[in-house]
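REVIEWER CHECKLIST
Item 1: Sequence provided? yes
Item 2: Single chain? yes
Item 3: Sequence as submitted:
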Amino acid sequence: MGGTPGQESFVIGIDSSTTACKAIAWDRAGRAVSEGRASYPLLQPFPSWHEQDAEHWWAGACKALRECAGQVNAAKIEAMCITHQRETFVPVDRAGRPLRNAILWSDERSRKQVAELEQRFGRDALHRLTGKPPSMTQSLPKILWLLENEPEVVARAHKLLDVHAFLVHRLTGHFRTSLSCADPMGLIDMVNRRWAEELIQALGLRCDQFADLVEPGAVIGHLTAEAAQATGLPEGLPVIAGAGDGHCAGLGANAVTPGRAYLNLGTAVVSGVISADYPCDRAFRTLLAPVPGYYFAEHVLRGGVYTIAWFVEKFASDLRNTWLPLSPEEQLEAAATKLPPGAQGLMLVPYWNNVMNPYWDPAATGVVIGWTGAHGREHLYRAILEGIAYEQRLVGDAMMAAVGQRFSEYITMGGGSRSRLWCQIIADVTGVPVLRSTTTEATCLGAGILAATAAGWHPSVQAAAEAMTATAERFTPQPDVQAHYDRLYREVYRPLFPTVQPLVDRLTELAGEHGPT
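Item 4: Structure as written out by the authors:
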């Protein structure tokens, strides 16, 4: 692999996300030169259950790749790499055919199994082993749910595959996956970088029921003739072992040096920092970084842009019908910008989709306090932005203490990063400057960086990230505003959830006693 300097050549990053597949061809400077996209549906057989037909991942990948490759000279494509929605998995037979729908990371059917895992193995012991306490986001409790509720499916399953492994098998014929793709499942021995054999056996499974593990950035296989015909790519094209979407977002933001943290303001808010040591703390989960020998300490808030979308849908959908050439979010932001810091006394805890770190509470709910008759929806909109920023400070401070680093800056990307108000609020609340990434596709670019390194374009992943990424606008903390937010954070936000949540839990219990059965 590897073209001569100055020769036009490309690599492809594929992002098989929760809603769509994107394939983007990148040049040596990290510029997107072509792309293809294909969406696929989310299935909800019951409330809070989230599933997908895994065949849609393959159909979406083929469509996106054909569109992408059709816009460039496909013979100049030197490698391809996949990033994907993490924790989602599907059981397959020996031919790689799905035995049931895939269960998604966002699925919430496994609350009972989370408690069972904690009782059987111990929360702290599982955390040390896998880098993550049990949570409904992981594959682990959902696999336990399958064992308890659909044992015949597990018995028939030749493999239980993450999204990356499923697509790698379709592309190369091999049941293989990357360590950085498998580790969010909650079944990897993080210190020894292998499947956690004793844990898997204790569940009644075997390690050979999972894909073979490959280091991220290594060649995981080559495109078969059948896959080449389906995708429009050259037969024999090297397929590079990738990483999960959050991992690759950190790489695509060039957050691969100490103190430089990534902050993805997407459906979920995901932030993290690299560490040469294995950090383990309740404030975050630990991942195998797509940089050899390193880890990511990562925070996930499940209700990020999702919470904003919920608010617009439930309380501001009428703004879609105004004469203004602005989206509802843009209209709300314009009104919220005129409000003072603190939303005139309104404060919000953004646990709309329960909470992972630092509380690891699957029953957690959102909290809004301080309502008066003077408040309108622009106040609540600003309170959402501020609440997520407070949460970022809560976990960011704990992450810095645990890994022994002071964040010099957040590199932000994702749909929420387009909000200048939100970026400035995060800088003011956390005291950390926020730099906006120049690409809106940092996740896909991260996969492209791994492919470019494997293609020999750069001597290391770090060098490739430096050469193929850039930042634009910088948001610096404003001292007076920062001081105001600091007091609100310390005196109100930080103690709020531990104080209020027991009352919310009881309220939920009472509502359930008189609700529908």
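Item 5: Key structural point noted by reviewer: Residues 1-6 have pLDDT under 50 and may be disordered.
Item 6: Recommendation: ____
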